[in-house]
């Protein structure tokens, strides 16, 4: 029997705290060599893009493949979202697909969870810090949720080109997180925060890296192609640069690819993968004045670990539809 889980069912059992624990273990396995993570495979049908992201975590017993499609004509032509994702979870002993679940909410939470884990290892430990979030979309919400699990914040500032999006963000996330959230009038005002989140769709740097305060931590989320970057050369230069994956960063992350190709920083500026901090192979934050930066590209190990977690929770809760395929 195969369990089918829709978006609302996935959301009903998936919490950020539990997802962070699963994602942390996934990065540990990657660093320790017990994870198999092939590069994502892309196929380009006439109207869109189809991505296949497989992974296997030996210790966690998580074998899965996420299928993500991006079809820009979907909303107008078919009344479907531009981006659609599904995750197929397999039994690693038999290979049987034991669960098919919606991947949209899962992807959003696991992306936030990776930043939350990075924040645990890289942000200053003081309570009462202020977060600054560039962007007010779904991922910005997940990023702030993860921050509140990693650190006890006193306040958050949010900045977006859409005032309406900012209002909706504050109305939803303030009560959800029991946190004071206020709109920022400019990018410069965001520089007065302790932890910065870049979660926009901008292809160009969104703030002046020279203005970032010492001791800050930054999670870079939005840009994910070699020619796009949210972070300028100044902040990359000033930061201890940690990525989810060395290979993924130098294939997909314009934030580091662009300054390296321009000869502004050496490749060796890439300090560590997140898993190396988790396993203690390299130190995370070493003092309260250094600026730390985590660059997230999104890895299939995050999907596999989270899918296994969701499946187990769904079975315990008795939800979903079981079908014979």
Plain-language structure description:
Helix 2 crosses helix 4 and helix 4 runs parallel beside helix 5. Strands 1, 2, 3, 4, 5, 6, 7 and 16 form an eight-stranded mixed sheet that branches. The chain has 325 residues and is α/β, with parallel strands linked by helices. The longest helix is centred in the middle third of the chain and has 19 residues, at 104-122. The chain folds into two domains: 2-107 and 301-323, ornithine cyclodeaminase, domain 1, CATH 3.30.1780.10; 122-297, NAD(P)-binding Rossmann-like Domain (Rossmann fold, 3-Layer(aba) Sandwich). The protein has helices spanning 7-13, 16-32, 74-78, 104-122, 138-150, 163-177, 233-238, 246-252, 254-261, 274-278, 300-317, and strands spanning 2-5, 35-36, 41-43, 49-57, 62-70, 83-90, 97-102, 129-134, 153-159, 181-183, 195-198, 217-220, 239-243, 270-273, 291-295, 321-323.
Unreliable stretches? none
Label the CATH architecture of the largest domain.
3-Layer(aba) Sandwich
First-to-last CA distance:
7 Å
Which band does the percent of strand residues land in?
25-35%
Give the rounded overall mean pLDDT. Answer: 96
What is the highest CATH level, the class of the largest domain?
A: Alpha Beta
Number of helices: 11
Q: Shape, please?
A: globular
**Helix content range of the residues, please?**
25-40%
Please state the CA-atom Rg, rounded to the nearest Å.
Answer: 19 Å
Find the CATH topology of the largest domain.
Answer: Rossmann fold
Give me the secondary-structure category. alpha/beta
Q: Describe the biggest sheet?
A: 8 strands, mixed
């Amino acid at each position: 029997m195969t369990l089918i889980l829709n978006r609302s069912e996935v959301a009903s059992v998936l919490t950020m705290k539990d997802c962070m624990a699963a994602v942390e273990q996934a990065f540990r396995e990657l660093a320790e060599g017990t994870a198999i993570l092939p590069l994502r495979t892309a196929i380009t049908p006439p109207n869109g893009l189809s991505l296949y992201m497989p992974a296997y975590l030996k210790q966690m017993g998580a074998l899965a493949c996420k299928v993500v499609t991006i079809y820009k004509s979907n909303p107008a032509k078919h009344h479907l979202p531009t981006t659609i994702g599904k995750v197929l979870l397999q039994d690693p002993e038999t290979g049987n697909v034991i669960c098919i679940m919606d991947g949209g909410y899962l992807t959003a939470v696991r992306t936030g969870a990776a930043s939350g884990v990075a924040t645990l290892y890289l942000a200053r430990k003081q309570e009462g810090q202020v977060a600054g979030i560039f962007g007010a979309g779904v991922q910005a919400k997940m990023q702030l949720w993860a921050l509140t699990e990693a650190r006890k914040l006193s306040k958050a500032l949010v900045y977006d080109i859409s005032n309406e999006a900012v209002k909706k963000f504050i109305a939803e996330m303030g009560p959800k997180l029991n946190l004071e959230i206020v709109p920022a009038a400019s990018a410069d005002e965001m520089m007065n925060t302790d932890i910065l989140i870049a979660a926009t769709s901008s292809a160009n740097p969104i703030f002046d890296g020279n203005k970032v305060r010492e001791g800050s931590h930054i999670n870079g989320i939005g840009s994910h192609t070699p020619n796009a970057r949210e972070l300028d050369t100044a902040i990359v230069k000033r930061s201890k640069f940690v990525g989810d994956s060395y290979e993924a960063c130098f294939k997909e992350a314009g934030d580091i690819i662009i300054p390296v190709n321009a000869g502004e920083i050496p490749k060796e500026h890439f300090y560590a993968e997140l898993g190396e901090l988790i396993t203690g192979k390299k130190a995370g934050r070493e003092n309260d004045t250094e600026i730390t930066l985590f660059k997230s590209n999104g890895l299939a190990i995050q999907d596999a670990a989270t899918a296994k977690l969701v499946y187990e929770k769904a079975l315990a809760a008795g939800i979903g539809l079981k079908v014979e395929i």
